[in-house]
């Protein structure tokens, strides 16, 4: 913790704006609106266990409000906040099949589009396990003054102007990058502010955690199976065996590994040749954060996640992300045993 002076997210964003002399503050406003939405969603997530008291999904609660599923609620809150920022001309969300554009003059003048997974790891909501929101921000390439177009969303991850996530864990944190390192902010519920708690996060070059859904083991490519066995072998020099840690919430699994050092793998499987995770909503933002904190992210070969040219909104890709040396090692196995076909 920054023990001397509390720096709030908004103060930090304003201070950083000076780093971008060409920017007029639009990105900053967008990020602070994401911070506002995050606080609202955090408040609701912390009440998730009260659902039996407050009302079942699809019914009306005691205040006469419709009770919504939390992921639908989060989607609506983030869309409303992005619209209110007036800097965002369109949104692609994992929750919606199509892109969302706001046909207002104000929004059409916005320079940015946002892709997001409003509540990732939703199978963990009902059981009080960490979940998260993931977002990416791109500068639009279509003409300002008009509605956003599909081409604005199908940009390579390398074009991200900013990316980050909010983790709703034992505390709520917002972690983001604008391409100048990664910074983390913890929500202090007593003052309702995100406070800088993890400045300039650097991921260790190596670690001793591997995260993969081993229940799918028999469906994994041989290189991945061999790498898992490597993780489990005894070797003092490389601190093996590694610990296996898998929550099933990408944000939580990624966050832990980024801070402690580790690798997260969601490979292609025999039944899902593209893996499970979505390029736009999950892989690109994590890849940007990984690279900005000194780590690496690929699709299982030498291609950077961020160099993949998206062809559709909900495209899936395999993901190998984490500490640089660990990702390098896993790729060696994949290349040796799968002839680099991943
Ligand atoms: P979701 O978007 O439906 O919540 O699914 C994404 C989640 C990720 O958070 C997590 O890494 C992954 O699914 C876990 O999948 P699996 O249960 O197949 O291991
Ligand atoms: Mg998801």
List the helices and strands and how they pair.
Blueprint: H1 9-17, H2 26-45, H3 51-54, H4 70-85, E1 88-93, E2 100-101, H5 105-108, E3 112-120, E4 131-139, H6 150-153, E5 160-168, E6 172-177, E7 182-188, E8 193-198, E9 209-211, H7 222-232, E10 243-244, H8 250-260, E11 263-266, H9 279-292, E12 296-298, E13 319-322, H10 324-338
Parallel strand pairs: 1-3, 9-10, 9-11
Antiparallel strand pairs: 1-2, 3-4, 4-5, 5-6, 6-7, 7-8, 11-13, 12-13
Helix pairs in contact: 1-2, 2-4, 7-10
The structure holds 2,5-anhydro-1,6-di-O-phosphono-D-mannitol and magnesium ion (MG).
Magnesium ion binds at residues 94, 117, 120, 282.
Total domain count: 2
Helix-strand string: HHHHEEHEEHEEEEEHEHEHEEH
State mean pLDDT (0 to 100 scale). Answer: 91
Q: What is the radius of gyration computed over CA atoms, rounded to a whole number of angstroms?
A: 20 Å
The CATH superfamily of the largest domain is known as: Fructose-1,6-Bisphosphatase, subunit A, domain 1
